[in-house]
Design goal:
mainly beta; four-stranded antiparallel beta sheet; globular
Length: 337
């Protein structure tokens, strides 16, 4: 089992009690993946009530019982109602791309990595609804990062892009801008001594059709998640910013990137009041671009958890769900409208 997977399980282990204040009704669905076994093996698609995060059964049987565990990478096809995720098969010792039906939670698509990429350490997947293709990025044995393009209709894999420099293996931070046909991938290039060249890494902006590198953008906001808001043409996610100009004193903030000029906008006016944001322990972030919400989890210095719904246009917390003691280990949340 991967170390990153274990971290995600620990970070999302909490019981949920609804806050008595600021309660609103949100008409959305959240889907995620829950392991079947305590070891993390097995895959079950879970539907969550957005207002309580209570689990709603989809199917009595899991999609996979054992030998396979989910990686921290998923994407969704809203038109076909298919939830895609990357998984690692311990029997074949290789990565797979699986498609699960949102209606019954069972596997409806299953692709192995193509020939020549059997030892490809897949790391992210992003769906392009305009062309019905999935972009899969990952690490080659050479230390380079490669991006593959999969046609959902034909099952054909096509190499799209490969870095010309070795990069550090880091958790996935990617998103697809389907309005501008641009894939965003965070990488951490290594120098000749094997050390990261940039703090926070750089975003590679890759043309989704030609594979041309359009530009690279330093991750100056130290973003750990990004999601594309097609209505406002922005990237939205979680990042960090120096607090009161004190070196090494960072606070977790919500960041938007204006795609017209690449400039960051730090939303800090209200976020500083969220428990845990000063501890540098903010986890997970998925957006609802129609309601302008980002859903994320924070952990304070006493290891208590708090699930927050935050409006990134009005800069306000609109909903909170607080923690307790029971384990909840769902990863890879996706919003369904």
């Amino acid at each position: 089992m991967s170390f990153n997977y274990l971290l995600s399980i620990i970070a999302l282990s909490f019981f949920l009690l609804v806050s008595v204040s600021n309660q609103i009704k949100i008409n959305r669905s959240l889907y995620g993946i829950k392991p079947v076994q305590q070891s993390g093996l097995g895959i079950r698609l879970i539907l969550l009530d957005v207002n309580t995060l209570n689990e709603i059964p989809i199917h009595p049987e899991p999609a996979i019982n054992d030998n396979v565990f989910a990686l921290q990478a998923s994407t969704i096809d809203l038109n076909s109602r298919i939830y895609y995720l990357l998984a690692f098969n311990e029997t074949s010792y290789s990565c797979q791309l699986l498609g699960l039906s949102l209606d019954n939670g069972l596997i409806v698509k299953n692709w192995d990595m193509p020939l020549g990429y059997k030892k490809f350490a897949a790391n992210s997947c992003d769906f392009n609804p305009n062309e019905n293709v999935i972009f899969v990025s990952g690490y080659l044995e050479s230390g380079l990062l490669a991006v593959l393009r999969l046609s959902v209709e034909t099952g054909m894999w096509t190499p799209l892009y490969t870095t010309n420099q070795k990069v550090e293996n880091i958790p996935p931070v990617t998103s697809y801008d389907f309005k501008n046909n641009t894939l965003w991938i965070l990488v951490s290039p290594l120098n000749k001594f094997g050390q990261p060249e940039y703090e926070g890494g750089v975003f590679l902006l890759i043309d989704g059709k030609t594979g041309k590198l359009l530009r690279d953008l330093p991750n100056s906001a130290l973003m750990t998640t990004i999601n594309y808001d097609v209505l406002s043409n922005k990237m939205v996610g979680l990042g960090q910013k120096m607090y009161n100009n004190i070196p090494n004193q960072l606070i977790d903030v919500i960041v938007t990137i204006d795609l017209t000029n690449g400039k960051n906008n730090y939303l800090t006016q209200k976020t500083e009041g969220i428990s845990g944001l000063f501890s540098g322990k903010t986890y997970f972030g998925v957006i609802d671009y129609k309601m302008k919400l980002i859903y994320f989890l924070v952990r304070d210095n006493t290891d208590n958890f708090q699930w927050v719904y935050y409006n990134y246009e009005t800069n306000h917390i609109i909903y909170e769900i607080r923690e307790g003691t029971t384990v909840m280990d769902i990863i890879n949340l996706q919003v369904v409208y």
